[in-house]
Design brief:
Helix content: 40-55%
Largest sheet: 6 strands, mixed
InterPro entries: DNA_mismatch_repair_MutS_C, DNA_mismatch_repair_MutS_core, DNA_mismatch_repair_MutS_sf, MutS, MutS2, P-loop_NTPase
Pfam family, one: MutS_V
Strand order of the largest sheet: 12-13-14-10-15-16
Protein name: DNA mismatch repair protein MutS
Number of helices: 19
CATH class of the largest domain: Alpha Beta
Keywords: ATP-binding, Coiled coil, DNA-binding, Endonuclease, Hydrolase, Nuclease, Nucleotide-binding
Shape: flat
CATH architecture of the largest domain: 3-Layer(aba) Sandwich
CATH topology of the largest domain: Rossmann fold
Structural class: alpha/beta
GO molecular function: ATP binding; ATP hydrolysis activity; ATP-dependent DNA damage sensor activity; endonuclease activity; mismatched DNA binding
CATH superfamily of the largest domain: P-loop containing nucleotide triphosphate hydrolases
Length: about 625
C-alpha cells in the first residue's frame, strides 16, 4: 500500500502525464502503481535513462497518438466496415510501428532495453501497403479498381450535362416569370429548380418538394430525368465497388486485430516511458541510486512542485532509522517531510530526482503518511480521533520496509497525553524497523529523540538577525517553535506579546481583572434546560438531529445548530438523543462543531499559524474587494 495523496504525488503524476502523446498513456500514468521491488524499480529507471539519452542527443522518435485507433479497432471487433479516413489512420499507425522498430534498431547499442520492447512489435507492412494503395486523401483511390476511374469520369460528365441543361432554363426568357429564384437546388438526390406554385402545372417536370409556406415547388425538369437516372445508376455502381474495397480492407484488419492491439499496448508503454523521460529532463533530474538497505540519502533534493525551493540534504540508514524535525510553523518542516516522501515515490515511479547530487533511495513496500487536518465530519470524528484511527492502521501494517511521515503527531489533544502517546507510537514503529520522519513542537518528544540512539534530531534554521526562517534543515540540532515571532508577524498587539513573554520567563499567570462595567437591564431568565453544548437533540421543527449550542436570552427558547446555521427555537419538545461527552473525546474542541464556513475557518487557522500561502490568499481577496 502506498498513500501518496498527502505528499501530493498525484500532482507529479499529472505533470508527467502532460508529456504523453496518447490519452491511454496519460490515463495509465495517473494510475500506474509504484514499484515496491528493487528489480522492478531499477527496470523503470533503466527505461527512463535510455529515453533521456535519446532526448539529450536530439533524436526524434516517430510517434503517433493512439486516441483514434482504439475506437477504430473496437469497430472492427464488432464487424463494422471502416471508412477511408479510418483505414488511413490504421495504415498510419502501422507505418509508425515500422518506423519505431527501425529507429530503435539503429540505437540498439545505446537503448538495448527499449529496442528489446520494439522487437516484440509485429510489422504489418503488407497490410500497410494495401491500405495506402487503395485509399488516398480520405477516399478510395481511382487505382483501387480497374472500372472505378471510368465510372467516376462518367458520373462527373453526367453532372456537368445536368448543370448545363438547368442553366439554360435559368437563362431562358421563357421561364423568367415562373422562377422563384435563379439557382439550382438539390432535393433528395434530384436536381431541381424553384418554381412559383402558380406555375407548377405549366412548367414541365416532376414535383420533388414544396417550400414550407407553399409558395414554391421544386421541380425536376423532364429534360434531365434520363440524365439523373443514368447518374444514379453510375453512382450505385461506384458505391458497390467502394464498399467492396472498404469491406475487404476491414476484413484484413480484423485478421490482424490481435497483433494490432498488442502493438498498441507496447506503443502506449513506450509513450509512458517517453513522458517520464521528458519530465525528468524538464526538472534537470539526476538518476537516483536504489538500495535495499533502507538508506535514505538526499543530496540537495529540491521539492518538485515549488518554485525556488530550498534544497534538502539528509542521511538516514539502518542505524539511524528516524528523524525528528523541530522548528517554527511556516518554517518548512512539512515541506521537508513531503520532499523526502516525494523522493522515494518518484524513484519508485521511474523518475529522476531534482537534486544537485546523486541521491540514494531505499525501495519501500509502503508509504504511510499522517499530514494535515484529518477531521472526518462525515463520521463525526475530531482531528485527533481521525488521526488516531489512521495511526492505528499504520502501526498494525508497518514493516521494516515502510516509510512513515508524521506531521505534528498527537497535537490535537492534551499536550502531556499527546506527547506520551506520540513517543509510544514512535517507539513501536522504530522497533518494527520502519523509516520514520516526524515533526513536533513537544519538548518531551525532542528530549526522547536526543536520548534514543535510533533517532537523530534536526531543526529548521531561523535567522536571528532578520527574524525570518531560512527553510534550511540543520541536522543534529533542536529548534524552537517561535510562537511569539509568528504572532508578532501576524499583527498581535505588543501588550499581548509582553504578557506572554513575562509568563514564559516567570511562570506567573496574569490575573488582573477588567474594570469595565456593563449596564444590564434585561431580566435574568431562570433556565431549567439541562442540555450541554454539543448535545445531539431531536426537535419537532426538523426531521434530522440538531446540535444544542446554548440557552437563548428569550424565555423558554434555546439556540441550536442545524444545516450550518444557528436557529432559535422553543425548548418545548426538544429531546436528548445523545450527550456530547459520549460523542467526543475528552478535551475535544466543541467549537469545531459549530463552524459555518470551513474555508473561512481554515484560512483564519492558517493565518494564525503564519502560513505565507494563506496571507497571499488574503491579500488577493482584499485586492478583489
Amino acid at each position: 500500500m502506498n498513500n501518496t495523496d498527502e505528499i501530493e504525488f498525484s500532482r507529479v503524476r499529472k505533470l508527467v502525464s502532460h508529456y504523453a502523446v496518447s490519452p491511454e498513456a496519460k490515463d495509465k500514468i495517473l494510475v500506474q502503481p509504484l514499484a515496491t521491488k528493487l528489480v522492478k524499480a531499477t527496470a523503470l529507471l533503466d527505461e527512463t535513462a535510455e529515453m533521456v539519452w535519446i532526448l539529450n542527443h536530439g533524436l526524434h522518435i516517430p510517434f503517433i497518438s493512439s486516441d483514434a485507433l482504439t475506437p477504430i479497432l473496437n469497430k472492427v471487433k464488432k464487424g463494422f466496415i471502416l471508412n477511408p479516413a479510418e483505414l488511413e489512420q490504421v495504415a498510419d499507425f502501422i507505418r509508425v510501428t515500422r518506423l519505431l522498430v527501425r529507429f530503435f534498431n539503429k540505437q540498439r547499442n545505446n537503448t538495448p532495453i527499449i529496442a528489446s520492447y520494439c522487437d516484440t512489435l509485429t510489422i504489418l507492412d503488407t497490410l500497410e501497403s494495401e491500405i495506402y494503395n487503395a485509399i488516398e486523401r480520405g477516399q478510395v483511390s481511382d487505382n483501387a479498381d480497374k472500372d472505378l476511374a471510368k465510372l467516376r469520369q462518367r458520373s462527373n460528365k453526367l453532372s456537368t450535362n445536368i448543370q448545363n441543361t438547368l442553366q439554360k432554363y435559368l437563362q431562358s426568357k421563357k421561364y423568367q416569370t415562373m422562377l422563384q429564384d435563379y439557382q439550382i437546388i438539390q432535393k433528395d438526390n434530384h436536381y431541381t429548380l424553384p418554381i412559383k406554385a402558380s406555375f407548377k402545372h405549366t412548367f414541365g417536370g416532376s414535383i420533388i418538394d414544396h417550400s414550407n409556406n407553399g409558395n414554391t415547388v421544386f421541380i425536376e425538369p423532364t429534360k434531365i430525368v434520363h440524365l439523373t437516372q443514368e447518374k444514379a445508376t453510375v453512382e450505385n455502381q461506384i458505391y458497390l465497388i467502394e464498399s467492396q474495397i472498404l469491406g475487404d480492407l476491414s476484413a484484413k484488419i480484423y485478421q490482424e486485430l490481435s497483433q494490432l492491439e498488442a502493438n498498441l499496448n507496447i506503443i502506449i508503454d513506450l509513450d509512458c516511458i517517453l513522458a517520464r523521460a521528458k519530465y525528468s529532463q524538464s526538472i534537470n533530474g539526476k538518476r537516483p541510486l536504489l538500495n535495499e538497505q533502507n538508506q535514505l540519502q538526499l543530496n540537495e533534493m529540491r521539492h518538485p512542485l515549488l518554485s525556488n525551493p530550498v534544497p534538502l540534504s539528509l542521511n538516514l540508514d539502518s542505524s539511524k532509522r528516524g528523524l525528528i524535525i523541530t522548528g517554527p510553523n511556516a518554517g518548512g518542516k512539512t515541506v521537508t517531510l513531503k520532499t523526502a516522501g516525494l523522493a522515494i515515490a518518484m524513484a519508485e515511479f521511474g523518475l529522476f530526482l531534482p537534486s544537485s547530487g546523486i541521491c540514494s533511495i531505499p525501495v519501500m513496500t509502503a508509504i504511510y503518511t499522517s499530514i494535515g487536518d484529518h477531521q472526518d465530519l462525515d463520521n463525526s470524528l475530531s482531528t485527533f480521533s481521525a488521526e488516531m484511527k489512521q495511526m492505528s492502521y499504520i502501526v498494525q501494517h508497518a514493516t521494516k520496509y515502510s516509510l512513515i511521515l508524521l506531521d505534528e503527531l498527537g497535537s490535537g489533544t492534551d499536550p502531556n497525553e499527546g506527547a506520551a502517546l506520540a513517543i509510544a507510537l514512535l517507539q513501536t514503529l522504530q522497533l518494527k524497523g520502519s523509516l520514520i520522519l516526524a515533526t513536533t513542537h513537544y519538548s518531551a518528544i525532542k528530549d526522547y529523540s536526543t536520548k534514543h540512539p535510533t533517532f537523530i534530531t534536526a531543526a529548521m534554521d531561523f535567522d536571528l538577525k532578520t527574524l525570518e526562517p531560512t527553510y534550511k534543515l540543520l541536522l543534529h540540532q533542536i529548534g524552537t517553535s517561535r510562537a511569539l515571532w509568528i504572532a508578532e508577524k501576524n499583527g498581535m498587539p505588543q501588550e499581548v506579546l509582553t504578557q506572554a513573554n513575562n509568563f514564559l520567563n516567570t511562570g506567573k499567570f496574569p490575573l488582573n481583572q477588567s474594570k469595565i462595567k456593563f449596564a444590564n437591564n434585561q431580566k435574568k431568565i431562570k433556565s431549567t434546560v439541562s442540555f450541554k453544548k454539543g448535545d445531539r437533540l431531536k426537535v419537532p421543527e426538523y426531521e434530522q438531529d440538531v446540535l444544542f449550542y446554548q440557552n437563548s436570552d428569550l424565555a423558554n427558547q434555546i439556540i441550536i445548530f442545524v444545516n450550518k446555521t444557528f436557529k432559535t427555537i422553543p425548548i418545548k419538545g426538544a429531546k436528548l438523543v445523545r450527550k456530547a461527552k459520549d460523542l467526543y473525546p475528552e478535551g475535544y474542541n466543541l467549537d469545531l462543531l459549530f463552524i459555518q464556513d470551513w474555508k473561512e475557518y481554515k484560512l483564519n487557522r492558517d493565518l494564525n499559524r503564519g502560513s505565507k500561502k494563506a496571507w497571499k490568499k488574503l491579500k488577493k481577496i482584499d485586492k478583489l474587494r
